[in-house]
Amino acid sequence: MKKLLSLALLSIISTVGLSQSSTLGNWLIYFGNKQLGDRWNLHHEVQHRNYNALGDLEQLLLRTGIGYDLTENNNNVLLGYGFIHSQNYIVNSDEKIEVDEHRIFQQFITRQNFGRVGLQHRYRFEQRWIENRDFKLRFRYFLSINMALSNPRMEDKTFYLSAYNEIFINNQNVLFDRNRLYGGLGYRLSRLVRFELGYMNQFLNNGGRDQVNVITFLNF
């Protein structure tokens, strides 16, 4: 098991190292979920996205929402709001343009467990107001897989492998927005807390970007 964990970490580090020739950024991500009774829950998250390791801000994303469990732990619907502040570089320049965006979104998450493997589907529909001028719609489909390593199931003090793919579809102009492919190593400290370190590549219409993701999940 130690050899397997070492190999997974080496794979992430090697991939990040090979990506240094491209634009490599760093995303610091916090996901929180607060239970409000038996079925209701409050979601909140903060994402600090950087063009480099830290200090060159690409995007600050704040998102929250109210969710409801249709069935116990497996199917959840949510209505949410997001604020996104972006700092985009002007082509062939060191100057940036600041862009603010407000989003309303609806999503449905369904989960299945098969022994060591956990599967999650997320369907999200976004209504986007960009700089209070442009209005856009976008659909996102997210598929993730977690596999427990150091225990037969996702229990406390368990290492796990994580992978996901998410595709973004616009309602106008160019339909394909982007695709995100991610792989990482996680550690579940307890039922309430887990951490992940991973590598993500974004496939865009005009190229691609690479990110190192450092993620904290908190349930309370």
Structural class: mainly beta
- What is the CATH level 1 assignment? Mainly Beta
- Tell me the CATH topology: Porin
Helices and strands, in order, run as HEEEEEEEEEEE
**How far do the termini sit from each other?**
30 Å
**What can be said about the biggest beta sheet?**
11 strands, mixed, barrel
Sheet-strand content, in percent, reads: over 45%
Sequence stretches where pLDDT stays below 50 over 5 or more residues: 4-22
The average pLDDT score comes to: 90
Radius of gyration: 18 Å
User: How many DSSP-defined strands?
Assistant: 11
Domain count: the total is 1
Total helical elements:
1
Looking across the biggest beta sheet, what order are the strands in? 1-2-3-4-5-6-7-8-9-10-11
Q: Categorize the overall geometry.
A: globular
Name the helicity range.
Answer: under 10%
CATH architecture: Beta Barrel
